[in-house]
Amino acid sequence: MRILVVEDDPLLLDGLTAGLGLASFTVDAVSTCEDAYAALEANEYRAVVLDLMLPDGSGLDILASLRKRQNTTPVVLLTARDQIEDRIAGLDAGADDYVGKPFDLDELAARVRAAARRGAGLACAILEWNGVVMDTAQQTVAKDGLSVSVTRREFGVLRKLLEHPGSTVSKAALEDALYGWQEEVESNAVEVHVHNLRNKLGSSFIKTVRGLGYRLSEECR
Amino acid sequence: MTSIRSRLLTILIASTGLIWLFAVAWIYISTQAEVERVLDARLTEAARMVNSLLAERKVEMALATDTAGDAPVQFQFGDASYERQLSCQIWSLDGKLIGRSEHAPSGQLTQSESGFSQSVINGETWRVYSIENASLGVRVMVGDSIAVRDRLVGDVVKGLAIPAILILPFLAGAIWISVRRGMRPLNDMATALSSRAANDLQPLPQQSLPDEIVPAVHALNGLFQRVQEAREREKNFTTFAAHELKTPLAGLKTQAQVALASQDGDVHENALRQIAAGVDRTSRLVRQLLDLSSVEASDRAPNASSIRIADIVRRIAADMPSENARISIGGDLEASQSTDAVLLTLAIRNLIENALLHSQGTVQVGIAQDAHHLRVSVEDDGPGISEDELPRVTERFFRGRSKSPTGSGLGLAIVKEAASRLDGRLIFENRLPSGLRATLELPASPSR
Question: Modified residue 4-aspartylphosphate is at which positions (chain A) (predicted)?
């Protein structure tokens, strides 16, 4: 799940990139408003973690401009200013959640997941299709009640597909969701992940739609 | 006396009383003179009247009887109460009493031949006017008793003084009420102020105030505003300080959690390194916060002693653990200044630290001194500060676009605060092709 983290403190930004990466997010990290605008313009994110006090402006400005453009990407505010009135101002400006510094990394990850889930119109952390159950909070996958071990990337591909059951997801969209800016994407990376998933979940679970991408198969095994 | 009201009351009542006494004295003296004049005129009038009556032979019988016998004639001299106070005697020029009015003493009223005179008869003082009638060979004397005169003057003055004395308390009351009413705006202000909560720094209303109080209210409102601003600054400072401390704390915690959760050796090691660097940075931030608050809070007068500037710079340079930048000192190495060593050291140290944070290689410290100023300039070869950010660089926690990763945004704020405590100023100029020159300019010490 690709997210954007906007934070000007290098220590915290580094920690967030590493920590949220461990929680299987794909993290794009920026430290100024200017870079944040550019990143939001160029990419589709599942969620944004936004610090309020940035060297060249306020995170609230980014939030406001995002909402003004009808962009509904879930935003989790991350700030040391966590008085009640600050929280209210942040939430009223269009934020989906508010986390005060210092915070627990796992809690932040859970809140980002929850915000992203709500943003995708999903009610709970469990995604299910044809006997395959994915718990996005626990990051586990099970088939017919038996746990299946998947890698972080495979998890990402499966999740993206499970979130859009019945519709075709393009290869580019999958790559986008899996890889941040700095990461080199092998041209056949997505094919490899899909191949591995088919091995683990059954060859007919994911269908290739030629020229368009992939989708979950309608038919039972 | 500290109460304006009692002072006003005292002054007003005392001065009114004095003026009142003066007025009473004046009335007394002028009334007395007037009464004397009127009574003297009456004496003259009466004497002339008797004389003219004698001349017209209206008292012939008396003169006739006088020749017949010895007993002097007694006659009624009018019957008005005023005139009863008068006594009249008619003496022949050869010294015989021809006639006298009722109650007139039997002794001669005066030895004086004509005009006014004063004489004592039977212990009583008389004022007498005598007139000589040579053709009849008589002398007419009319007199009145001084005691009676004094009683008359006393009655007149009493008639004036009693109402005036009765008026006095009313006068005092009127003064008291006027002063009270006049002081009401002050009282209102005092009530308004004393009923305020300690943190209520709203300005006092300025409408419909007497001109005299307006300056005080202005001054008070100005003070309120300054206190309010100071409190606001303090509050902002605390909030910002908390923000600045919470962020590295959040970073430290996150890195610690990453280190705990990660199996990957590189990630693990990087997190621990970040934690170490973060602790250093946070310590520096805490030190700078303490520096800033100590510079700010010191309301003591700067503790002046004569110091050589180059020594300070050398000491700071020696403390600086800088691997990639060198500090060189140039200019007037003998320059010394009588100033507060602690504040000056703080200022120069933070300037040098700031320069080192942005410098690529060398930081040049220049010392210059002339008759009026001591200048310490610190030059770096970093990116400089863009013109639009220059006015803001001394704001607390302001970190510009070309910030260093470890700066706190407090260093230049400390320098500015210290400079203003030393009556100096801080000047920033961008250098060509790149870099920043920060100059601390202090007024020359008088003892130089």
Answer: 51
Distant-in-sequence contacts of B62-70, Cβ < 8 A, 24+ apart = B62/B90, B62/B98, B62/B99, B63/B98, B63/B136, B66/B92, B66/B96, B66/B98, B66/B99
CA nearest B267 in A: which residue? A18
Say whether B385 sits in a helix, a strand or coil: coil
Domain count, chain B: 3
Rounded distance, CA B386 to CA B401, Å?
8
Three-state SS string over B84-135 comes to HCEEEEEEECCCCEEEEECCCCCCCCCCCCCEEEEEEECCEEEEEEEEEECC
Contact between A22 and B262 using a beta-carbon 8 Å cutoff: yes
Ranges of each domain in chain A: 2-119, 126-216
Residues of B in CB contact (< 8 Å) with A are 239, 242-244, 246-255, 257-258, 261-262, 267, 270-271, 274, 277-278, 281, 399-401, 403, 405
DSSP annotation of B203 reads P
The answer to whether the Cβ–Cβ distance between B239 and A81 falls below 8 Å is: yes
Average pLDDT of the segment spanning B193-197 = 84
Q: What is the ipTM of this complex?
A: 0.71
For A106, the closest chain B residue by CA position comes to: B257
Residue A75's DSSP bridge partners are: A48
- pLDDT of A220 reads 52
Q: Of the residues B233, B265, B295, which one is the last residue of a structural domain? A: B295
Q: Which of A6, A7, A11, A76 to mutate to test the interface with B (most CBs of B within 10 A)?
A: A11
- Check if CATH label 1.20.120.430 holds for domain A126-216: no
Whether the CB-CB separation of A49 and A62 falls below 8 Å is answered with no
Residue A32 touches partner B, C-beta closer than 8 Å: yes
Identify the pLDDT of residue B80.
Answer: 45
CATH code at position B40: 3.30.450
pTM for this one? 0.56
Closest-CA residue of B relative to A31 is: B401
What CATH number should be reported for the domain whose range is A2-119?
3.40.50.2300
How many angstroms away from the CA of A19 is the closest CA of chain B? 5
B196-218 pLDDT tens trace: 887 788 887 777 777 878 888 88
Q: Among B243, B277, B295, which residue terminates a domain?
A: B295
Tell me how close the Cα of B247 comes to any Cα of chain A, in angstroms: 6
Contact at 8 Å (CB) between B307 and B339?
A: yes
Pairs across A and B, CB distance < 8 A? 83
Question: Is B311 found in the same domain as B250?
Answer: no
